[in-house]
Design a protein that fits this description.
alpha+beta; Pemi-like Protein 1, Chain: D; two-stranded antiparallel sheet; 3 helices; elongated
Length: about 70
């Protein structure tokens, strides 16, 4: 874990290990998501559809769709 100081211009330096892990380099765009006390910094996806693909996999039981259709 690296500790960074916020500059007088409200800038921080992302540590080399973090840049490598995210696969970003100078000039790349990053997303900053704030959820309450938590702030997430991640690379901006080139294709949102591919990033979201399979995100909900396993969220529902395997027979969920069949049961929902039968309930109509």
């Amino acid at each position: 874990m690296a500790i960074q100081k916020l500059s007088s211009k409200n800038q921080i330096v992302i540590p080399k290990e973090a840049r490598r892990a995210m696969g970003v380099k100078g000039g790349d765009e990053l997303l900053v998501v704030v959820k309450g006390d938590l702030t997430l910094v991640m690379p901006k996806p080139k294709r949102y559809a591919r990033t979201l693909q399979g995100l909900a996999k396993g969220a529902y039981p395997s027979d969920y769709l069949k049961r929902e259709r039968c309930s109509w």
